Amino acid sequence: AQSVTQLGSHVSVSEGALVLLRCNYSSSVPPYLFWYVQYPNQGLQLLLKYTSAATLVKGINGFEAEFKKSETSFHLTKPSAHMSDAAEYFCAVEGAGGTSYGKLTFGQGTILTVHP
Amino acid sequence: ETGVTQTPRHLVMGMTNKKSLKCEQHLGHNAMYWYKQSAKKPLELMFVYNFKEQTENNSVPSRFSPECPNSSHLFLHLHTLQPEDSALYLCASSQDLSEPTQYFGPGTRLLVL
Lengths: 116, 113
Fold this sequence. Notes:
Largest interface: A-B, 21 and 26 residues
Oligomer: heterodimer
Shape of chain A: globular
Helix content of chain B: under 10%
Order of helices and strands of chain A: EEEEEEEEEEE
Strand content of chain B: over 45%
Largest sheet of chain A: 6 strands, mixed
């Protein structure tokens, strides 16, 4: 069975500072990995995804994530935070095959707060 | 309309009511999903449909009844719900189960009194 762990349910940064949101996964096969963002009273919006191509993935709004197989990690970063980045961020994994086929397993989410 | 839409956006119902949530996707996808999002809990997958056939029922109580009449529409029929069923219900779609990238609707915020 797959699992996703997001380290830190709340992260607070100053505007202009580096954003780092951590995600570790467990999967018995090479996974597909995703980051989604959820703004208040809205659904989830896809930020970026890793599907076994380049290990450094660039997404929307200046975010990127690096797949590190040896560390089973897929951390999300942004060089300079903006006030509009304040939201909840979810990491998700899909491990093709078996009972996990076509299903995403989500982490518990990290709420990002950006201070002026 | 583009993407995935859900109606209504907000719903208040009593425990004896019957209501339905509607989801429509305009992406030409063949797989659709219902999720439940409760406070302080990870997203819970409820149901999966692929080419109109249900492929997953994640031990959901029978007071939730899904319906997928075609690949573009997905319903969640609700009856005799409990207060603990209050949550945000999210619909998502993907090309099919072999392409796992899911696109989400805005959700229906449900309050059961």
